[in-house]
């Protein structure tokens, strides 16, 4: 089939997926993009819809939603066994609250600009992460395309997602969750193995990034290169709450790795142990807990990016700021 299969999350962006769909639908038609669309009805439905679409012959998918919707679509792509995931192309029309994957590829936030990018078919092949984790003592596996967080980041995501499930809306949800998590969260000793390089310390938060933005615009892995076959890992050691607040600007201006309590590492295989267990999020989706194992698939997914997108980071520059252990 030559048509696009469009998966729409009506709850994304506090309901913008539903309210803005008539506009998006009209713009797709005006730009002569042939498509079939389906609305998601529940959590994980986009995984099922992606699998069904590919089984029916579609090889071009559009995700209309936020980072979580894209994550589900990607998991559907890699869970199906009809065609190679490399044969699937993914476009994104962002209506979520964070849209962090979006930021990496400089895709304009206007719907028409997104649709023009999809029509231009500027394809970029990015890496895909796999994380193995435990939930209720059962081993699970999840694919992700942006970033995963362990510890404090996962606690914030858990609180934010819980509020969303209760029907709360708006950007303030993340701020409220962050403040509550900061008050209650305690650093935990983590044992981390990156490509055989072992280290352990009391850890506040650990980010595993393919792309460089998470947490609605934060740059916890500011030198991440999404097609180099490596994760960028930022480990924030035990830190006082006052120091966290004083260092918030570093998360937005890309200087987080200059902080004395922060270590940056690069590698393609990561294992994390902790006692007690700490939570995990991937692409903003709350998952399970440690122990964790991360592996990476090099240039495994074809995504549509902005025509103007150029990766400004270089491997040489990244290696100046991080410990390369691969």
Give the class-level CATH name of the largest domain: Mainly Beta
SSE class: alpha/beta
Oligomer: single chain
Overall spatial form: globular
Which stretches of 5+ consecutive residues score pLDDT under 50?
A: none
Question: Helicity level, as a percent range?
Answer: 25-40%
Number of structural domains: 2
* β-strand number: 15
Short description:
The protein is an alpha/beta fold. The chain is built from eleven helices and 15 strands. It has two domains: 118 residues, Probable inorganic polyphosphate/atp-NAD kinase, domain 1 (Rossmann fold); 185 residues, Tumour Suppressor Smad4 (Sandwich), CATH 2.60.200.40.
Layout of strands and helices, then pairs:
Layout lengths: L3 E5 L3 H8 L1 H10 L4 E5 L5 H11 L4 E6 L1 H13 L9 E6 L5 H5 L6 H10 L2 E13 L2 E7 L2 E5 H14 L6 H13 L3 E7 L2 E13 L21 E7 L3 H6 L1 H6 L8 E6 L1 E6 L4 E4 L2 E20 L10 H7 L1 E2 L2
Helix pairs in contact: 3-4, 7-8
Question: Would you give an account of this structure?
Answer:
It is a single chain. This protein has 326 residues and is α/β, with parallel strands linked by helices. The chain has two domains: 4-121, 3-Layer(aba) Sandwich (Rossmann fold); 128-298 and 311-324, Sandwich (Tumour Suppressor Smad4), CATH 2.60.200.40. 32% of the residues lie in helices and 34% in strands. It is built from eleven helices and 15 strands. It has helices at 12-19, 21-30, 45-55, 67-79, 100-104, 111-120, 152-165, 172-184, 241-246, 248-253, 315-321, and strands spanning 4-8, 35-39, 60-65, 89-94, 123-135, 138-144, 147-151, 188-194, 197-209, 231-237, 262-267, 269-274, 279-282, 285-304, 323-324. It has a six-stranded antiparallel β-barrel with strand order 7-9-8-12-14-13. Strand 8 (188-194) and strand 9 form a beta hairpin. Helix 3 crosses helix 4. The longest helix is centred in the middle third of the chain and has 14 residues, at 152-165. The radius of gyration is 19 Å and the shape is globular.
